[in-house]
Amino acid sequence: MAEEQMPSEGGASEGSRQNKKKIIIGVSIVVALIVIFIVILLLLLGSCTHHHTMVYHPAVSPTCESTGSVQYWHCEECGNDYIDEEGSERIEDVTIDMLPHIEVTEAGKAATCTEEGYTERKYCRSCGEEIAAREVIPALGHEIPEGGFSVVKEAGCTEEGLETCVCARCGDTIERTIPAKGHTEEIVPGTPATCTAEGKSDGIRCSVCGEVLKEGETIPKTAHRYGETVVKVSAGCNSTGVGERVCGFCGDVKREMIPALGHDPVSEDVPATCETSGRKGRVVCGRCGEVLEEGEIVPPLGHEIVGNECINCPATASEGLEFKWSNNSEEYYMLAGIGTCTDTHILVPDVYDDGVNGEHPVKSILNSAFEGCTSIITISIPHSINGIGVSAFADCTALVSVTLGENVRTLGALVFENCSSLIGVRFKGSTEYWNVRNDPADSEGIRVTDSLDDPAEAAELFTGKYVTYSWFISGSRRSGYLFLD
Fold this sequence. Notes:
- The protein is built from two helices and 42 strands.
- The protein is mostly beta strands.
């Protein structure tokens, strides 16, 4: 037996190197294959590197009314559709086309002379949708033969006639009534009524058969056809007039009395203003001007002065009046006269400023302040005045109205002497407790019991009964009011 030869130490090392080389080559191939597999897998999956969030969509069968779809999974992350939940294969279109209709036809029916027909109808057997609707074919009606109808009975004015024929299509006998012709009306002229004879209305008869269709009616005689009244004598407020009307047909003349018109009362009440007189209760006829009721004159109302302005109208205090300073411990002004003022309606201010003593109230009107001022028509005394001097307005012959403020307590004697036009004295304050006296030493005086609330009665007392007397309210001297008599 040959001896088995053992490899040398050098030979063993060479084999070991060969084995290691083979292992390295094998590992490299495996790694390369893994890399290639990953690359191929990435290519298969596209560039999607996210984790799919799949929603399952079951298959939907198509119909002839709607499309269907295959079973698929939809990724909510990338928006792609896949054939399985793992996303191994992407699907581009999941839609299945609609199915075609399965058409079914129902037969139609021909129309006859007397019955309707209809066309065939088509619909889908699967969904029932109507593809071609059935339409009604109207009955044909009888076919009139070439010779047409033959008259069996002629129509009259009120009776129907009859005609017949045989249908050329179905052979039926066709009857048709001939409408009655109706009467042929003609007018039987009537005669018009007049104011002297009766008339008759038109009648009607048939011109074919002669039947009277409407008898004419008797028309009573008409009334005379009088025209408009022609005034011969005009009526007045208190006198009658005369008019005539003529009948346009027969010329008859009808004479008429025109009643008296009577007065047309018109109220001429004029309200008094601050500066002008009014009139109350005067009535005149608006037609003839006759005064029916005189009424009474209402004196001017006078100005109500507050802060040198009238609170009832735009007027302001008169300018240019003459004032004097009081020259005593109580500071106030006294109205001394007309000064340069040219107003015919005097508004006495309740305060004044002479530029030296400053602004202070006006408290009195001095003796004879406006005596002989014949241009003054009204004068309004403010509430600040408490005393009016002797003859303050004497001989003011144009003076119509005076308004006394509520604090006037004394008026001197002859204050309105010869004021012949004065018709109103108005008291803004109380009319009670007024006294008059002829003797300055008489502290009691005579109580005025006549009405002072009526401006006209008050004016009569000042210019008549008590013209020479001074006036004062009881207690005015003791109350510290100016006393200028």
